[in-house]
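BUG: 3D viewer hangs when loading the predicted structure for this chain

Environment: internal workstation, default settings.
Expected: structure renders.
Actual: progress bar stalls at 90%.

Input used:
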Amino acid sequence: MTTTGSLAPGADADAADPAAADPAAAARSALPAPYLRWLVGAQLGALGDAALAFALGWAAAAHGGAAAGLVLTVITVARTVLVLVGGAVADRLGARRVMLAGDAVMLAATLALAAAAGVLGTPLRLLLLAALVIGVVDAFYLPASGSMPRLLVDAGQLPRALALRQAGGQLAALLGAPLGGALVAAGGLPATALVDAASFAVLLLVLLLLPVSDPRRAPAARARARARAGTGTGTDTGTGTGTGRGTGTDRPPGLLREAAAGVRLATGDRLLRAALLLAGAAAGAVLPVVALLGPLLARSAGWGAGAAGLVAGAQGAGVLVAAVLLARRGTGAGPSRLGAGTGAAAGLCAAAVGIALLAAAPVPAAAVLGGLLTGAGSGLFAGRLGPLVLGAAPDTHLSRVQALLTLVQSAALVLSTGALGLLADTAGPRVPIALCALAAGAAGVLALASPVLRRA
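Structure tokens produced before the viewer hung:
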């Protein structure tokens, strides 16, 4: 099997190919059918996952708030602890193989969950076990799936491909909770788990039929990776086929060493380092606003749950609109001519303005407008930063760089959410929302002033 994108094994860009010779033409060309098929399957899986997440949270809430928080924490901790190893495994074995294994495990796990919940109900130990399985599989699956667009589309098409994926993911997130609620009402956790199992079965079939082969670790690619990681010629940076310590043996280095090599490469590359720092700052400053601080503001202002839902919906709609526009425009016209780094910084600045509007909102209508602007800005930020990070990663380290991106964002979100929640308890929600606006704006301005991001 061969890829349809720029990482086809042993293939270089064909000089006679207009798309290869003209990046703008490649950006405007239709996305490959294999990518679109995988994307449909992936978003169907995301919809099932969102529905199951709602059902697990609903079932855990019956055991109390602490139990519900514990279930969510188990997922996050398992994913965060193992994600770097998951990226190393995906780079060693291939993203497609890891995704096939992950989907097979989740198919079996969701079927088992449906059967167990049908017999036992929803005891807390069952919910915690399900959360642990989800977190562990996520740690291996997310880095692998994050590298798939690079394996299926040409470099010039990455912005549109990732924007379309972002739009689909946002749509799945918006529809997942209502679908989960309907399934829980109709058949409880067992019915929701069965629907999620069906989505994994479809995705397994899509992956099995997908004409993609993970990039081979050619010596030239390994040499480029060594040069970028600054390891010289004595150590292969973790391709799984190298020479270990240069002894001439074929024994691959350990997974922890491969994970560490990915961290060294990303932190040693000026562009990747700047992009990862910016991603962490955005995650810590923007993500807690709508999920945590928006509902707290609605409660303290007496607006009610309906207003909080409208603010969250407006934020989701803003992300979706920005992603759709980026998917339509690609990199060839209009505002999308902004460089990736400049566009990401501009999006973060726009999100900061929206957060500031939310902090000062006297009425729900103003808060909804702030949520819409926050979503549009964060959608532009993600739509421009994602291709930058994925495009800057060397072929040998695609999944490890995606794993580090996941780790940076998760760690920043965990730290900021706890601190902002405590501050909201003592000073009211408007103060931490204003601080988030300042932090996001400062990060955006610093990114605009960064030469390495401006040139990206």
